[in-house]
Amino acid sequence: MKQSRLFNPDAIQSILDDWPETFAEAKVIQQRLCEKILLQDQLSSVNYIAGVDAGVLNKGRQIRASVVILNATDATVVEQKSAVVDNVFPYVPGYLSFRELPAVLSAFLQIEQLPQLIMCDGQGIAHPRRFGIACHLGLITGIPSFGVAKSKLVGDYESPSLTRGSHKPLYYQQQKIGAVLCTRDNVKPVFVSPGHLINIDSAVHWTLTMGRGFKLPEPTRVADKLASRR
């Protein structure tokens, strides 16, 4: 594995071995770890970008997650891995990372070419406790991460024009937490928010850069297809 300076497979496996089992434990973890999130952009050159998504199998009893590594220049797929684990958390808004990350991290541990940036199908700091799945994944892996969600979890905004590239700020509790971004003409916008080691402007930039004519940017669009076996 071509490791980044911060990516530590042994530490990640240790986290998985001690994964919380209750919502009370999960909430405490969110409240503690959200203070470690950094929103200063720490991107240098991005050669590879990961798309991350997960879906359910066997009537929700298992989670299948996929990590797809794309070339950041032409959006070609250079590697893809999937993992299936037992589901230990039901779906409750605000706790998605505790449901999906065991499978996502298991897939990440198989990756040979680590990315310099991760794009998640979900939220970053656009979250009630400022700790969505992109924050959680970025903090664990040490890789800059952000979320591109199809729907809003929290916040208020003015609708952008339905022209590709048009965007408006997303606010929650009087703080700017992301952007509502139109990625395709005449199509409803997506909700972009930074997770860790990236700011809002860079998250918007990379969402548009990795667009290939669809509503969803290519990393999460391909990961969604793989996770859903489409």
Question: Concise description?
Answer:
With 230 residues, the protein is an alpha+beta fold.
Structural account:
This protein is α+β, with helices and mostly antiparallel strands and 230 residues long. The protein has helices at 9-17, 23-33, 96-108, 133-141, 200-209, 218-227; strands at residues 48-57, 62-71, 77-86, 117-120, 145-149, 167-172, 175-181, 190-196. An 8-stranded mixed sheet has the order 3-2-1-4-5-8-7-6, with helices on both faces. Residues 1-5 have low confidence and may be disordered.
What is the element layout, followed by pairings?
Layout: H1 9-17, H2 23-33, E1 48-57, E2 62-71, E3 77-86, H3 96-108, E4 117-120, H4 133-141, E5 145-149, E6 167-172, E7 175-181, E8 190-196, H5 200-209, H6 218-227
Helix pairs in contact: 3-4
Order of helices and strands: HHEEEHEHEEEEHH
- Average pLDDT: 94
Order of strands across the widest beta sheet? 3-2-1-4-5-8-7-6
- Contiguous helical run count: 6
Question: So what's the oligomer here?
Answer: single chain
Portion of residues in beta strands equals: 25-35%
Distance between the termini: 28 Å
- Using the CA coordinates, give the radius of gyration: 16 Å
Helix content percent band: 25-40%
Tally the beta strands: 8
Which segments are poorly predicted (pLDDT under 50) over 5 or more consecutive residues? 1-5
Largest sheet: 8 strands, mixed
Question: SS-based structural class?
Answer: alpha+beta
Shape: globular
